[in-house]
Amino acid sequence: MPTIMRAYRHANDLSQEALAAILDYDKSYIAMIETRRRDPGDVAVRRHIARALGLPSHFLGVTEPDDADFAALVQFGDSVIRLAEIARQSGRAVEAVNELWPLVARLEARAAEGRLERDTLLLLAAARLALGVSLGTVLPEERLSAAAAWTGKALILARHTNDQPFLAHALRMHGNELRKAGRLTAAVTRLDHALAISTDPTGQGSALALAARAASEAGLPDQFITAINQCRRLLDTGAEHGMLVNPFTLREIHARGLLALGQPTQALHVLTTDSAGEPAAPQWQVIERVTTGEILTASRDKDGAQESLLAAITIAEQRRLPHQLQRAIRAANRGGLAAVAHTGRTALQRLRGQLAPTS
């Protein structure tokens, strides 16, 4: 209290007498507070001083009525994020968003008041990141910049921590959301940085897989091939490398990258000769079906493309993945599959209705 009172006076160029007039106290009372001869321990007095000076009441040691609720929110915040991540990876990204919004909103409001300690700021960074990635799953392409904005806000906080693994994770996730939003140069930069500082096999594998995808879309064949080959070497070790470095996902990333680089014949070869196994998460089944449809379209296999794209459209609507529907529609249009494109647009329209905000 004494330090705060003196700092307030000096910041606002006030004398003890002027401060006393603002608070409607005697100058001698202010002097005694600043010299620690008096300690206004009464909560009502402290609240009066905080209101009069426009200071958050917690600066003066006053606990607000909602502090206990906020403490409980923080206590279970990590669990909320973990459960939301499980929901997203299980194909229930909308549920993940719904779980994360209240946590992020409370933490953001608290941060705006300057009332977050370091550990709670780390929780806010993790919540921002999880929310951005979940939004990147359920938003249509024209709104994916919002997902990148949230992961970018998480990265800002991550850069100011000493938590290197979390910084690497934030760089990976932000880089991938930038890629999806079409900001390929920035995506490659973030993913290169993530790879440089990732030390665990899962982090390295994830960075490589995402870097391969970004490099192919950015038209960087040498970087793409290098990343794919390094991913394959990781797979050959037989160790667990997470959702992004497994036979199914790597086959999709490899084939899609070759297609992006203008090599549809090689992409089809990868699809038909590489072993795949099962997808690590339900949404990867949709992603792979769309990629297969794109490659078959480029290879002029209309029947195969139609079958694959219709399957993708059905599952994408069920899983509520609008930008995968948009990919399928584009592939159908390129292949002259008008009926498939119409089916995709109808499904997308229904999905937009489901995901539209309520009044």
Search tags:
mainly alpha, 434 Repressor (Amino-terminal Domain), 19 helices, 359 residues, 0% strand
Structural Rg: 27 Å
- Name the helicity range: over 70%
Structural class: mainly alpha
Distance between the termini: 45 Å
Contiguous runs where pLDDT drops below 50 for at least 5 residues: none
What is the averaged pLDDT score? 88
What's the overall geometry? elongated
Biggest pleated sheet: none
Counting DSSP H or I runs of 4 or more residues, the number of helices is: 19
Q: Spell out the helices and strands N to C.
A: HHHHHHHHHHHHHHHHHHH
Strand fraction equals under 5%
- How many DSSP E strands? 0
Describe it.
The chain has about 350 residues and is mainly alpha-helical. It is built from 19 helices and no strands. The two termini are about 45 Å apart. Among the domains are: about 1-65, lambda repressor-like DNA-binding domains (434 Repressor (Amino-terminal Domain), Orthogonal Bundle), CATH 1.10.260.40; about 65-160, no CATH class; about 285-359, no CATH class. About 75% of the residues lie in helices and about 0% in strands.
Q: Nutshell version of this structure?
A:
The protein is mostly helical. It has helices at 2-12, 16-23, 27-34, 43-53, 67-75, 77-89, 93-112, 118-138, 144-158, 164-180, 184-197, 201-217, 221-236, 247-260, 264-273, 282-298, 302-319, 322-334, 338-355.
List the helices and strands and how they pair.
Layout: H1 2-12, H2 16-23, H3 27-34, H4 43-53, H5 67-75, H6 77-89, H7 93-112, H8 118-138, H9 144-158, H10 164-180, H11 184-197, H12 201-217, H13 221-236, H14 247-260, H15 264-273, H16 282-298, H17 302-319, H18 322-334, H19 338-355
Helix pairs in contact: 2-3, 6-7, 6-8, 7-8, 8-9, 8-10, 9-10, 10-11, 10-12, 11-12, 12-13, 12-14, 13-14, 14-15, 14-16, 15-16, 16-17, 16-18, 17-18, 17-19, 18-19
